[in-house]
């Protein structure tokens, strides 16, 4: 029996080493390769070794960057190549959806499933022209896709209200993360890991509210805080690093790409601070939940939906200061149990893969 041919486009590629969509593609190929003949499009800019296959799936390379301005032609070329063989195309993100009306002219039978991501056009980092383009691409995605996937109930409601389209709600898995004890070597290198510490790891961007978190923890000298991010990528990051590096309780670290070391930092923290305000269901949040970390999250509806309104929330540095001052061990234990239970029930990869499979 011939297997249905599935093309996955819109990611940097696999093996995953970038972000949420890449991890999603990796687990879809791992879980569904017996049911489907899968091809994943990858950026040769990010994979100089160019594996022919991975997880028993074919890898095809495009000589463009998968992110930034080149993401548009990258996705369009992937779509054109997919037309030649695919029964179903899974599009992750809306950059290339500007091409969908033309694709439909050539092939009306091919099934298109699009995960529209986290309302990318709303993000502060884009100028007004980029925002307009992304919004238009999003509109075309909802019009020309057979199925639209939303990763958060807030986005699902938005698609219904804005475009009168019903979407499928599918989040992300998190059961790939591991709780790892802190090694003696790491404790010797970073002596603050011997203390109880709060932790954050993220891109250093205004919409992740790093300024709010740092302002709050700077007022609590008894709380050791560790934050890892790309501080030198923007003036925002450089300014914050300069302002808060002198605080003895704040430990500002540059990016760490060794996953085992990152796992040690994250899985042993006293409390996890999540400042993201954009982007739907955030993979780093569901990973923290799966590790059973007590979570204090920025009070946007995305985060409340992801945590089923059972985390603790803040809108400002003043509110976060109050939470940090008033939290106790009993509350932290309850928080930890709630986060772990929600994640185990909702954010496991086999469940996510089967939900996607039902759409193909």
Low-confidence stretches: none
Give me the side-by-side strand order of the main sheet. Answer: 3-4-2-1-5-6-7-8
> Which sequence of SSEs, written as H and E, runs from N to C?
EHEEEHEHEHEHEHEHEHEHEHEHEHHH
Structural class: alpha/beta
Second-tier CATH architecture of the largest domain: 3-Layer(aba) Sandwich
Q: Looking at this structure, what is the CATH superfamily of the largest domain?
A: Glycogen Phosphorylase B
| CATH topology term of the largest domain | Rossmann fold
Q: Determine the strand fraction and express it as a percent band.
A: 15-25%
- The count of β-strands is 14
Shape: globular
Radius of gyration: 21 Å
Please count the helical segments. 14
Number of domain modules: 2
Oligomer state equals single chain
Notes on the protein architecture:
The chain is of the alpha/beta class and 360 residues long. The chain folds into two domains: 167 residues, 3-Layer(aba) Sandwich (Rossmann fold), CATH 3.40.50.2000; 163 residues, Glycogen Phosphorylase B (Rossmann fold, 3-Layer(aba) Sandwich), CATH 3.40.50.2000. The protein has 14 helices and 14 strands. The protein has an eight-stranded mixed sheet, with helices on both faces. Helix 7 packs across helix 12. The chain is globular and about 65 Å long. The two termini are 17 Å apart. Pfam families: DUF1972 (PF09314), Glycos_transf_1 (PF00534).
């Amino acid at each position: 029996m011939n297997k249905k041919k599935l093309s996955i486009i819109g990611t940097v590629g696999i093996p995953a080493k970038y972000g949420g969509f890449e991890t999603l593609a990796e687990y879809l190929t791992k879980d569904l390769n017996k049911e489907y003949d899968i091809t994943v499009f990858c950026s040769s800019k990010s994979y100089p070794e160019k594996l022919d296959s991975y997880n028993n799936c074919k890898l095809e390379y495009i000589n463009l960057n998968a992110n930034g301005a080149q993401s548009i032609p990258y996705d369009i070329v992937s779509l054109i190549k997919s037309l030649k063989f695919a029964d179903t195309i899974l599009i992750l993100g809306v950059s290339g959806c500007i091409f969908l009306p033309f694709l439909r002219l050539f092939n009306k039978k091919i099934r298109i499933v699009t995960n529209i991501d986290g309302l990318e056009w709303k993000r502060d980092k884009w100028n007004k022209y980029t925002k307009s383009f992304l919004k238009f691409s999003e509109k075309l995605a909802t019009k020309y896709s057979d199925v639209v996937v939303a990763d958060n109930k807030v986005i699902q409601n938005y698609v219904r209200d804005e475009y009168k389209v019903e979407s499928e709600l599918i989040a992300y898995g998190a059961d790939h993360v591991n709780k790892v004890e802190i090694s003696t070597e790491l404790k010797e290198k970073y002596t603050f890991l011997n203390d109880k510490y709060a932790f954050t790891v993220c891109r250093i961007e205004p919409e992740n509210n790093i300024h709010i978190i740092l302002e709050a923890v700077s007022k609590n000298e008894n709380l050791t805080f560790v934050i890892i991010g790309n501080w030198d990528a923007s003036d925002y990051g450089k300014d914050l690093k300069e302002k808060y590096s002198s605080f003895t309780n704040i430990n500002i670290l540059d990016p760490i790409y060794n996953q085992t070391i990152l796992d040690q930092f994250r899985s042993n923290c006293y409390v996890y601070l999540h400042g993201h305000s954009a982007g739907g269901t955030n993979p780093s949040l569901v990973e923290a939940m799966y590790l059973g970390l007590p979570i204090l999250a920025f009070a946007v509806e995305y985060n409340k939906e992801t945590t089923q309104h059972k985390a603790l929330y803040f809108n400002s540095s003043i509110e976060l200061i109050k939470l940090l001052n008033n939290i106790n061990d009993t509350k932290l234990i309850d928080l930890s149990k709630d986060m772990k239970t929600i994640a185990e029930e909702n954010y496991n990869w086999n469940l996510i893969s089967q939900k996607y499979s039902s759409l193909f």
